User: Fold this.
Amino acid sequence: MSSMNEGHIESNGDNFSLIGINYGSCPPLIRSTIFGGETDLSIILTSLNSEENKSVYGVLTCDRLEIYFCKSVFSRVQLDFFNLLAARTNLDPRDLERVAYKLSGKVALKHFFKVVSAMESQVIGEPQILGQVRTCEQISRSIAPASIFLNHIFKYAFSVAKRVKNETKISEGPTSLAAAAIRVARNINGELTSCNGLIFGLDETAIFLAEQFEQAGVKKFITAASAEFKSKNPNVLKADLQLEAHSQLIANSDVALICNNDTNYTITKKMVSSALRLRKYKPLFIIDLGVPGAVEPSVESLDAAFVYNLENLEQLAVEGIEKRVLEKQKAEGIILEELETFYLRPPNRDIGVLAREIREALENELQSMLEQKPNLSVRDACYLVLKKFLHQPLKVTRELSENDQLNSETEKLIRNLLIPQNGDKGDQNEF
Assistant:
């Protein structure tokens, strides 16, 4: 049950606290144990939330575990959190505490705004983080007692993240070789869901890129590989070495990953030229994974052929990272602005929490009345409870009148609050 005075907690952020462990704060063993799939946010929050701890919210992603709560219960939540996490992971709670970060007040608030805005992610600007935090907030709200304070902070953080996204380009530009390749492919071919892929030869990089392309929407990859590979992987296509066969395979593909299997060029200008005729010169994206190159350099002279090697893609990734770092500086300025604004802006009142508090107060008073006077009928008990609840509003109204402060607008507000209006049947689900 939520505390009746929880809504009166100061909203300036000084009461906000968090404890966290992330990809950068702990060694590989702890990192793999916590983020290896055994940690369950629902179980953690169910265990942490108690009448003593009040409301504890949390965020769990593939590389971050953080819990959020009011500073007044810091010591108790901290002890419970490390003991619980240790029990679930078979790790020493002292080891967990040593790698954790503990923040309160303005520092904690700034950190949280940066997390939600993808400024603390392994990849700056990671677009998935906002949706992940929203999901975790929903889980938290379903488990934790209602918290006006934490609800306000989460909602404000979401608005900060939206502003960062709209006013900066922190999520734009590739930051990895695979992301760069996919970005170029989309620029050439548009949406990848109608595209086919081809792998000539085979190595680990080609397999990885093919997997990334398939996740990005490419329908399927055909592999032209050695007989040995074919025997181990019967679902791939074994191509012969004839020009016509090579050209046909290329013609049927929109993204071609080319590995170097020998000292000769795997893909020649003649092959690609023939393939482009068969494709009616529909653009073709070729990634040369060979070291040395597996694609004949003259292929780049063909108008509809776009050839990129590993160095080209890596350069795009570096440029993407550099751009995000520059945009991060802009985002930092937004965070600082919003941090100051937060301290000046009162929290939005959560009417749902207020409604539940009123309902619980009524139910508790009625139950207490019936326990104290068991011979009372339910009707008489309801009358006495109503009389008690009306006492304070009527007292305040009387004092306003005596002090000549009861104007028409105030009187109208009191009437609307206490007296059902004509035609108002009430909302059965409101309380």
Q: What stands out?
A: The longest strand covers residues 16-22. The radius of gyration is 32 Å.
